[in-house]
Amino acid sequence: MLHALTDHEHEFHTGMTVDAAMEVALALLRPEGFDIATYDFSPVPLSHEGEFITPAVLSLCNAPEDMEGLWCRGGYYQIDPVMEASLAVSRPFAWAHGGRQSPVMRKVLAEKHSPVVSYLHDTRMTCGITVPIRAEGGALATFSAIRLDPERAAAGDAEQLLAAVGQLGRIFHDAVYPGFDAATRTSRHIRLTPRERQCLRLCAAGLTTKQIAHELSRSVPTVTLHLNSATRKLGARNRFQAIARAAHYRLLEPDA
């Protein structure tokens, strides 16, 4: 059915929920031997320290019940080799934790990924295709199709479906992304109050503390309090570093 994807594209509509889109996607994937579909979206994929930030959206269709907890709260998302590969390339790629591994994955696999690889072996999720999707403002989404207990030749067979799964992943994202609200599109790794963001935004524009106080009709000590609080929350040494980190998390944008 994937080879006739254009005949089914109408089943995806702009603004549909992730769950609804997942049902359509998995129905198209199953005839090709895929058992599980996953999708995640991160408005800011990495912290300023270079670690993966748990995504704002994570949808797992037909996956093991404990997978969401491990990835969102157990730290597995931060050591998932597929996520590292998704940052390294912009094209769909196949992966296999058994048999022949793809060149993309061979470049990133390391000892730190062992817990994730072991889990995938234990749950029989040893072969799949992942589609990295660069979104607005540097956001990252990935769509994956996974096979359970594939035969040794499955990895090579999966490579023949890269283009079709890649197209499906992008159609999926284009359908669900318009339905994301402002909170979903904003990084929640660092939480600043609206006033703290406003003060930082004006500081980044070059205003002094006194000028910010005048602009907001607040006292200088109050503005200083907001700036110092934001600097502390960002783990910055000074306001210049706070502005840089706030920009990294897209907290200086008007609708952040």
UniProtKB/TrEMBL annotation:
This is LuxR family transcriptional regulator. It comes from the Bacteria. It comes from Paroceanicella profunda. Keywords: DNA-binding, Transcription, Transcription regulation. GO terms for biological process: regulation of DNA-templated transcription. One of its GO terms (molecular function) is DNA binding. InterPro entries: Sig_transdc_resp-reg_C-effctor (IPR016032), TF_LuxR_autoind-bd_dom (IPR005143), TF_LuxR_autoind-bd_dom_sf (IPR036693), Tscrpt_reg_LuxR_C (IPR000792), WH-like_DNA-bd_sf (IPR036388). Residues 185-250 form the HTH luxR-type domain.
